[in-house]
Design brief:
The protein has about 270 residues and is α/β, with parallel strands linked by helices. The protein has a single domain, classed as UDP-N-acetylmuramoyl-L-alanine:D-glutamate ligase (3-Layer(aba) Sandwich). The protein contains 9 helices and 9 strands. A 9-stranded mixed beta sheet has the order 3-2-1-4-5-6-7-8-9. Helix 2 packs parallel to helix 3 and helix 7 runs antiparallel to helix 8. The chain is globular and about 45 Å long.
Length: about 270
């Protein structure tokens, strides 16, 4: 029987992030991916030129259709552009008892905003308490807390702990936006730092979709029945391989995607 994960996110027409990245990552890790599309973006490696939110009743219908038929082992939530979409997704998951990975997508790699300012409070109040794990990068964590970006490991731990107090069972503070030759990701829960994941920082601009890929990979691990720390470890190792092979893809003229199928075929 197939392990199944559901991604609830926006569509990236360029194929490097969003729903497209999620389904690629889930497939690469041996999990069947189902999807609920919350928004359609006109997007490539250089810019987001248009965003169209899916009607709320259609979002709700997608969630109902999947959960009423498929044995979903874990849910990943990504781009939710408006307060109304956030509330619709929360309502749609009210009867789902499995793990939820929440990636608070706010800004595309191109710098374009993907979450309205008015939606940040709704995301914090409605969905953070529902999350098994929250996976913010440093700017996202700071925006959720109304603080400046963490600059040191101690500040990352403090912000992770502050986010845990808002409801998620654990927070993965991602250090990709930090400085130094080594990137540190810290898994923080109510007892403190649960695990640390380290990797050399790759000198590449082709990191489009890394956040989507990591969060959906964690969901894939949880759908397979892995513990949270093991699911994050598997996802972290997979993403590092995808980043290391990103330059070989040569997709687009801006921030290109990572190589989701680096373990299957060489570019």
């Amino acid at each position: 029987m197939a392990h199944i994960a559901l991604t609830i996110a926006g569509s990236d027409s360029g194929g490097g992030a969003g729903i497209q990245a999620d389904l690629k990552a889930m497939s690469a890790l041996g999990v069947f991916g189902a999807s609920v599309i919350t928004a359609v973006t006109a997007q490539n490696t250089q810019a987001v030129t248009a965003v169209h939110g899916i009607p709320l009743d259609v979002i709700a219908a997608q969630i109902s259709a999947v959960l009423s038929d498929l044995d979903v082992g874990a849910v990943k939530i990504g781009m939710l552009a408006t307060p109304e979409i956030i509330t619709t997704v929360a309502d749609g998951l009210a009867g789902f008892s499995g793990p939820v990975v929440l990636d608070p997508v706010m800004v595309a790699k191109s710098g374009d905003a993907l979450l309205a300012d008015a939606a940040v409070e709704t995301l914090r109040d409605v969905l953070l308490p529902r999350a098994t794990i929250l996976t913010p990068n440093l700017p996202e964590a700071a925006r959720l807390l109304g603080l400046s970006d963490a600059q040191t490991p101690d500040q990352m731990i403090a912000q992770g702990a502050a986010l845990v107090k808002l409801g998620p069972k654990a927070v993965l503070m991602k250090g990709g936006h930090g400085a130094g030759d080594v990137c540190h990701d810290l898994l923080v829960d109510g007892s403190g730092v649960r695990a640390t994941y380290e990797a050399p920082r790759h000198p590449t601009k082709n990191t489009h979709g890394t956040g989507c890929t990591l969060s959906s990979s964690i969901a894939a691990g949880l759908a397979k029945g892995l513990s949270l720390t093991d699911a994050v470890a598997e996802a972290h190792a997979y993403l590092q391989g995808a980043i290391a092979q990103a330059d070989a893809l040569q997709v687009g003229q801006g921030h290109g995607p990572v190589h989701h199928f680096h373990r299957v075929w060489s570019a």
